[in-house]
UniProtKB/TrEMBL annotation:
Protein name, UniProt field: Luciferase
Natural source organism: Prauserella flavalba
Signal peptide (UniProt feature, chain positions): none
Transmembrane segments: none
Assigned keywords, A-Z: Flavoprotein, FMN, Monooxygenase, Oxidoreductase
Annotated GO MF terms: monooxygenase activity; oxidoreductase activity, acting on paired donors, with incorporation or reduction of molecular oxygen
Record-linked InterPro entries: Luciferase-like_dom, Luciferase-like_sf, SsuD_RutA_monooxygenase
Luciferase-like domain boundaries: 28-351
Length: 386
């Protein structure tokens, strides 16, 4: 680039992430933007990919004091992952959904996943992101994803890109974003992969720049995250069993944070627990087993193959059964047991929990009414509204 890159720096004190960090544990909701959410199962539930359903989930999360809401992005052909459930055939776009939720929510940090290498130009995303940030009053964040599935690249008429090169490209893209958001003047830049001449973005993001996020496990991905991300979505090297997760996560979290500190930065790691909470442990495990008993076998096989067939480095420690239930770590039990596991994951170095559920609205409401007060008692969360 011909312009000086904007170096990674702490967010403005007014950023919504600063408010989230007043809690010992950041709390996010993984929105079910995609049909079937995380579980290729036909067990009874009311979870829906529709906007109205997701908006209700976001508003409920806001009411219960969640810090952020996040949606993943995907690009699938007809039938999604297949099977009788046509798993994930429908999905709302996370960037557009965030724009709509910006007008309905008042406090949640709204994070959008964008596959930045699927035909995007930094000027486009800098403009669109700043606009959503402006609409939301400074509550928009960007989850930078490079993509790794050859089928997705080919959907856009592109050839798959080698793993480490993807992160080199993502770094240049992010540098250009940050420059566009920061510069009061026109920007001219010529990089290896993108160029721009006399580019200018208004309105500017409310807090200087939006919160930046990515998910990484590989050395190249973690190098990118350590340089640019504020939040890093991590996966458990030990799979979804929380006992194994808390054994393997301390070293994993330390490695990531040491990489960032070597660059003079602080990052926070966030993990994705699938929470199945009931009044008794027996009821919770019965709900867990019901998901497995109603597995959509074809969809499950395709789902696992889709994530493990490429050069993605995450999720390698998960069994097929754990994929069917979905989520990165499975927390099953009573409200007290869920809080105990949250505490153990926090002790293992995780700064936040990005929660998903099977039957979203009833499970979210149970979490809000029964688990959240216990998280406050445990000192992991401040009471909502404080």
């Amino acid at each position: 680039m011909s312009t000086n890159p904007v170096q990674a720096a702490d967010l403005a004190p007014s950023s919504p992430l600063a408010a989230a960090l007043e809690n010992d544990l950041i709390l996010g909701l993984f929105l079910p933007l995609q049909e079937g959410a995380w579980s290729p199962s036909s067990a009874p539930r009311g979870t829906s990919w529709t906007y109205d359903y997701n908006a209700t989930c976001a508003l409920e999360a806001e009411k219960y004091g969640f810090d952020l809401a996040f949606g993943l992005g995907q690009w699938l052909g007809k039938g999604g992952y297949g099977g009788e459930t046509r798993f994930r055939e429908h999905e709302l776009d996370p960037l557009i959904s965030s724009a709509a939720l910006a007008a309905q929510t008042t406090r949640l940090l709204l994070i959008s996943t964008v596959h930045v290498l699927y035909g995007w130009h930094p000027v486009h995303l800098a403009k669109y992101g700043a606009c959503i940030d402006h609409i939301s009053g400074g509550r928009w964040g960007l989850n930078v994803v490079t993509g790794y599935k050859p089928s997705e690249y080919r959907m856009f008429g592109l050839d798959p890109i080698e793993h480490d090169l993807r992160y080199d490209m993502a770094a240049e893209f992010t540098e250009m974003l940050r420059t566009l958001w920061a510069s009061e003047d026109n920007v001219t830049a010529r990089g290896k992969y993108w160029s721009m001449q006399d580019a200018h973005i208004l309105p500017k993001p409310v807090h200087g720049r939006p919160v930046l996020v990515n998910a990484a496990s590989s050395p190249a991905g973690l190098e990118y995250a350590a340089q640019y991300s504020d939040l890093i979505f991590i996966t458990s090297p030990g799979g979804a069993d929380p006992h194994k997760a808390v054994e393997t996560l301390p070293a994993h979290n330390k490695k990531i944070k040491d990489l960032a500190r070597a660059r003079g930065r602080e990052v926070r790691t966030v993990i994705n627990p699938h929470v199945i909470c009931r009044e008794t442990e027996k009821e919770a495990w019965a709900a867990y087993q019901a998901i497995l008993d109603n597995e959509d076998t074809v969809a499950a096989e395709n789902f696992v193959a889709g994530f493990t067939g490429g050069d993605n480095k995450s999720w390698r420690g998960h069994s097929r059964e754990q994929w069917v239930v979905g989520g990165n770590v499975h927390l099953v039990g009573t409200p007290e047991q869920i809080v105990e596991w949250f505490g153990k994951l926090h002790e293992a170095g995780c700064d936040g929990m990005q929660v998903n559920f099977f039957d979203y609205l009833p499970d979210l409401r149970r979490f809000g009414e029964q688990v959240m007060p216990l998280l406050v008692e445990a000192g992991l969360r401040k009471a909502a509204g404080r």
